[in-house]
Specification:
By secondary structure, the chain is mainly α. The chain has one domain. The protein has four helices and no strands. Helix 1 packs across helix 2. The radius of gyration is 23 Å and the shape is elongated. The protein starts with 15 loop residues before the first helix and ends with a helix.
């Protein structure tokens, strides 16, 4: 993405405790706080929403499987 098209996001009312914890995690990774937060935001943005996830689950076909006890019994003859 070109630098001119980057957006800025501001988060307000972050507690001191949360700020310290995030800065400490960033320091442990040898990264800036901004870089760590950007990576986390990218990860969150790439994940499907709850509604998308539920839609995916609902659209799956139902598969009929043998009971687990039967599968195990078939794999362990003589037991």
């Amino acid at each position: 993405m070109h630098a001119d098209s980057m957006a800025t996001i501001q988060v307000r009312n972050v507690s001191d405790e949360t700020s310290r914890a995030l800065k400490a995690k960033a320091a442990l990774e040898g990264r800036s706080l901004s870089d760590c937060l950007l990576r986390e935001l990218d990860r969150i943005a790439a994940r499907p929403s709850r509604a998308e996830l539920l839609e995916r689950i609902a659209s799956r076909t139902v598969v009929s499987l043998d009971p687990a006890a039967q599968v195990l019994a078939d794999q362990r003859p003589g037991r």
